[in-house]
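Example record for the data management plan.
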Amino acid sequence: MFELNATRMVYLHRDAIDFRKNINGLASLVEHALGMNAFANAVFVFGNRRRDRIKILGWDRNGFWLLQKRLEDARFIWPRKERSVIELSVQQLHWLLAGIDLEAMRGHTAVVYQKAA
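Corresponding structural encoding:
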């Protein structure tokens, strides 16, 4: 069974794609345009131009899975990084699917002390 567990890598394709692409078209895009292995222990996330739809392609033992989510009155908040492929954790993918802006999430700043008083 297909699982989105912490061992899977998540690669987000930053640019919009033609959403008529099916499994073969997306696998070809992964291998030729991104230069990655479509059969890896990873999922590849694609969005449309309006950012109201997402397709997720993943390989599982003997076949591909293609998952799709369509929003009715909202948009996915896509990261604005310069690279064409962005590596995410599975948790970050869940946040993206929930509508959370990944770039707005910041942890506390690190504090470094030389010695305790």
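Summary line stored alongside the record: DSSP finds two helices and five strands in the chain.
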